[in-house]
Amino acid sequence: MHRAATLAVLALALAFPLAMQETYYLSFASRIFVYALAATSLNLILGYGGMISFGHAAFVGTGAYVSSIFIAEGITSAWIGWPAAVAASALAALVIGAVSLRTRGVYFIMITLAFAQMMFFLVNSMKAYGGDEGLSLPARASGLPVDLGGDVAFYYVALAALAACVYGLRRLAHSRFGRVIQAIRENEARAEAIGFPVYRYKLACFVLAGAAGGLAGVLLASHGKYVNPNVLHWTQSGTLMVMVILGGVGRLWGGVIGAATLLGLEDLIANHRVEWLAAMLPNYQQHASLGVGVVLLAIVLFAPQGIAGAFARRRRA
Amino acid sequence: MSWVLILEQFLNGLQFGLMLFLLAAGLTLVFGIMDMINLAHGSLYMLGAFLAATLVQVTDSFALGVLLAVPATAVVGMLLEMSVLRTLYERDHLSQVLATFALILILNEAVRIIWGPDMPLSMPAALSGPVELLPGMFYPAYRLLIIGVGAAVAALLYLLVARTRIGMQVRAGASNREMALAMGVDIRRLFTLLFGVGAGLCAVAGALLGPLLAVQVGMGENILILAFVVIVIGGIGSIRGALVGAVLVGLVDTIGRAFLPMLFGLFFQPRVASAAGPAIASVLAYVLMVAVLYFRPRGLFPARG
Predict the structure, then answer these.
(1) What stretches of chain B adopt beta strand conformation (E)?
(2) What domains appear along chain B, each with residue ranges and CATH number?
(3) B126 to chain A, closest Cα gap in Å
(4) B292 interfacial to chain A (CB closer than 8 Å)
(5) How far is B130 from chain A (nearest CA, A)?
(6) How far out from the chain centre does Cα A240 lie?
């Protein structure tokens, strides 16, 4: 995206709470930011690093659970709980990545999935923290300069986190580290032959994405003041992957566009009744995911490069 | 803990493993030959169970209903292959994940629209009681039936793959697709057929497990991942690997759940054991997979040389 367009989008996002007083849409926009952050972190390994991880929910879930456990145990300061949660996610990514990155291709997809499933079942059996029923939080974390309890404040915090992450990804992609990561994606053997420690670069990239995913998890739990094992379910990893592919793999705004499109589409079908459709199928709004599925399928078949890719191609043509 | 209990859990594990094999067999061939990730495989399992539940109601006979559900699901699978999945073979894994994930959403909602969230499916009354296997050892007759059917289907599948011309073409396709094509194997037609067989096997598993678990929307999603674990352990594209992997995962999962909490009780305090036992038991299958991949990165029986 051009600088002007980026600034315009940012200005719109900043002004949105001033124009929109309805809490439903503020909260909805915050949710999009959180998922956009998670999808962007996945895009770093998936798109830039070429590592098809099917277990990103593990890091989002770790962030969500660790930050929630801090609050449940009475340590409400965001200055303690949040860094700890992000560090825990990074540590999880270090351990999972260290084992998984020894495998290739389909086996990498499956082993990352297996690790995420392990975490899913472990969290399910943590009876002290809700087990399969999940954990409700009395309040959001405290200690930040703004009171996170308010919807507007949370909106801006989520926006700031997302903006920082996208900016960071942009800087990273153009840095030496980012260039090496993309070179490894294009031709691993050649990068190895040039003399780069490929495994270490990939692992560092994996840990970075895990940490960012953890931050998304922190915000996700904080947003709903609730966390349950479903944040670690494999369909959650699948949804994040869908967002990235939908938006554009390896494109700076891919995660953001994908998250906004997918969540927006769900909301559009579920909450905005179209009369002529309703005349044909009276209960169609209860089956929103049918529509989402059809749209996703159409995108795979007709726009293989994702939404960001389709626009980029049009501009060049 | 007596030997009867151990034998009983062993049979339970075998029964679960054989059902996993029915799912994994189709999945591993699709994966091995076309290098295609099909997340919608679990949806065919769900569809098979729903079709069986309906047909059992209509025909008023468990056996007839299940037998009819198998070809019906196979037809759906073949239609799915011809309409959507066929266009995905040449695409990368990401597109396949996205498209088949979309298919899960579509099929889940389609089933919800047609049947609602769940369907009753109970085992035939004649098989609901226990059978005395050995003096003093009773085992549910229905589970024995599952083991019998599972073993029979596995044997049939083995004969089909190892002894017939079509099976030879399938194996050729799995070990080197281009070469098989060059030798004149019509991979396209073969593959539609294979997909139908895979879908039919899903229906067998779905229909037989239906009375034990539950016939509901989303039932395919959790077992799908276990089926993936099975084929990765066995080696992608290998039927033999799928069988070994499935029985291994079935046994480890079932026996782990049954005995690990007890075993932990011997070494740890009861409070720790009751918390850690079930937790560790539920991830054993995944730990097994990670361990296998760590030492044999291409699975136990790699199909490609």
Answers:
(1) 118-119, 130-134, 137-140, 215-216
(2) 10-132+139-295 (1.10.3470)
(3) 36
(4) no
(5) 32
(6) 6
